[in-house]
């Protein structure tokens, strides 16, 4: 559900399980992935030195990304700009 953005209802229908069962197991997995053994072993925050030079040295990008934590390369960030700003953000990946 977190990768495909499917709802509990869709996942339940796909696996022929009740919404309650899907929700219960989803919350169990969330607690496992956010608990200390898993999280501390596999989740690492990057250093600021890992920012690409073309972003760090470009005054067009750096003011917006200097406080960003994590990798943006290959990530999809769902954003809904205001109606009057949508043209500026159209076709940006």
TrEMBL record:
Question: This protein is called what?
Answer: DDE Tnp4 domain-containing protein
The upper taxonomy is: Eukaryota, Fungi, Dikarya, Basidiomycota, Agaricomycotina
């Amino acid at each position: 559900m977190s990768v495909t953005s499917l709802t509990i209802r869709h996942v339940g229908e796909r696996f022929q399980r009740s919404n309650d069962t899907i929700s219960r197991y989803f919350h169990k997995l969330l607690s496992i992935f956010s608990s200390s053994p898993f999280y501390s072993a596999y989740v690492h925050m990057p250093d600021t030195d890992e920012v690409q030079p073309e972003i760090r040295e470009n005054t067009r990008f750096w003011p917006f990304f200097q406080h960003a934590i994590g990798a943006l390369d290959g990530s999809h960030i769902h954003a809904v700009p205001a109606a009057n700003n949508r043209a500026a953000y159209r076709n940006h990946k």
